[in-house]
Design brief:
- This protein has one domain (about 20-445).
- The protein contains 17 helices and no strands.
- It has about 450 residues and is an all-alpha fold.
- Helix 1 (about 15-50) runs antiparallel to helix 9 (about 195-220), helix 3 runs parallel beside helix 7 (about 150-165) and helix 6 (about 135-145) packs parallel to helix 9 (about 195-220).
- This is Multidrug export protein MepA.
Length: about 450
């Protein structure tokens, strides 16, 4: 699909589904993979340029990063779906109102979150599992990241609107731009200037500032399908309510992820110490790479599903779901094979420390045991979100983490120690997939598609 002003969204209801999904998904996959690499690059440079305790300190920040992402997705993902549905209903004016509300909501939430988190940063990090050895690293990193939180939120929100309004290639370009700049600045700040973990954080925020500037140039251009104009920057109750209702699913998912990582960090600290937390930081980055690719397919699916659901073209809705499920399962199966067959070379990318490598290899193999089914579960949850069925998407988002993973984390480590922490994750994956399959089957029958 080309980034053309008036025809861009309309092909969502006419183009062949397979071609359309690839046209939307490939830029999203590149963008999401790049976003994952964005985080991995920080870990790699920190692991080799600062040390294993710095990796553990970085892992301590994951819950706070998840919490920030939760508020970002509350607005961004909800806006993306709402824009797609409005365009499917030929309501361009409302879609443009969504754009203005995205900027305002992200600015408000970003500033409030930054202020509260900075004021209580040390107590938060200690609660998340920081030790006297890892707290300085975690604090140094998050002070910079939180200082740029406003930029991060607006950058992420505008990228979601870019993709949903018919500019998937531009959304991809914005992310790639941030990744490339981040990689260059990481090498410069950490290896040349020797700014340590603070250098990694500065590189991240500087890269986002550059990408945000490029996004703003697009939305100030009146030739863009959706663009800034007078009258769109006042908060509208029905638009904000719609965004928050749809975005509540990924928000709660990220919120649960925050609590889950806290439990994981505390359990690993109790049974394996700081290095076990560092190992989880590495495993999480590796797993996240494959999950982000699936999320790329999901993002490609969302505007297509949302548009055709709004246009009541249910045969096309079913087609895009089938294609996306197949692709998602294929990705997580590749991740499973890579983790089982080549765990040590993968971990060596992050660290050469023998003890940290040994713990991380064991964790990676266990975590990925049922990984092939995760792709199906993720696509199913995203499908409900894409067609505006917020309550069902929320339920599916919560099943794995709240109903299955948290109880497993409270039980298994008491019997199996560190291994019990690792095994809690694949057990939750397997059970959540069964629930997702049952709900999807019922929904498709109900829609008569």
């Amino acid at each position: 699909m080309t980034d053309v002003k008036d025809s861009a969204p309309l092909v969502l209801g006419t183009e062949k589904i397979g071609k359309l999904l690839m046209q939307y998904a490939i830029p999203a996959i590149i963008a999401m993979t790049a976003s994952s690499l964005y985080n991995m690059v920080d870990s790699i440079f920190i692991g080799h340029g600062v040390g294993p305790l710095a990796i553990a300190g970085l892992a301590i920040t994951f819950p706070l990063m998840n919490l920030a992402a939760a508020f970002g997705s509350l607005v961004g993902v909800g806006a993306s779906t709402l824009v797609a549905i409005k365009l499917g209903q030929r309501d361009k004016e409302s879609a443009n109102q969504v754009l203005g509300n995205v900027v305002l909501m992200n600015a408000i939430i970003g500033l409030v979150f930054m202020t509260v988190a900075l004021v209580f940063l040390d107590p938060i990090l200690l609660f998340f599992g920081a030790s006297p050895d890892t707290l300085p690293y975690a604090r140094e990193y998050m002070e910079v990241i939180l200082g740029g939180n406003l930029v991060t939120h607006i950058y992420m929100g505008l990228n979601e609107v870019l993709r949903a309004s018919g500019y998937p290639k531009k959304a991809m370009t914005a992310t790639l731009m941030a990744v490339i700049v981040n990689c260059v600045l990481d090498a410069l700040f950490i290896l040349v200037f020797e700014w340590g973990i603070r250098g990694a954080a500065l590189a991240t925020i500087a890269a986002q500032v550059i990408s945000l500037s490029w996004q703003l140039h697009h939305f100030f251009d009146k030739k863009s399908f959706l663009h800034f104009q007078r009258g769109i920057f006042g908060l509208k109750r029905h638009i904000v309510g719609g965004m928050l209702a749809i975005g509540l699913s990924p928000f709660l998912m990220n919120l649960c992820a925050c609590f889950v990582v806290i439990l994981i960090n505390k359990s690993l600290k109790a049974h394996g110490g700081d290095l076990a937390i560092g190992a989880y930081g590495i495993v999480n980055r590796v797993v996240f790479l494959f999950l982000m690719i699936v999320m790329g397919f999901n993002q490609g699916m969302q505007p297509i599903a949302g548009y055709n659901f709004g246009a009541r073209q249910f045969d096309r809705l079913k087609q895009v779901l089938k294609y996306t499920v197949f692709c998602g399962v294929a990705v997580t199966t590749i991740g499973f094979l890579a983790g089982q067959l080549f765990p040590r070379p993968i971990i060596y990318l992050f660290t050469s420390d023998a003890d940290l490598t040994r713990i991380a290899v064991e964790g990676l193999r266990i975590v990925l045991i049922f990984f092939p089914v995760v792709g199906f579960q993720m696509v199913t949850s995203s499908f409900f979100q894409s067609i505006g069925m917020a309550k069902k998407a929320i339920f599916l988002s919560l099943t794995r983490q709240l109903l299955f993973l948290i109880p497993s984390l409270l039980i298994f480590p008491n019997f199996f120690g560190t291994v019990g922490v690792w095994m809690s994750m694949p057990v939750a994956d397997a059970i959540a997939t069964v629930v997702a399959a049952l709900m999807l089957r019922w929904q498709l029958k109900h829609l008569n598609v």
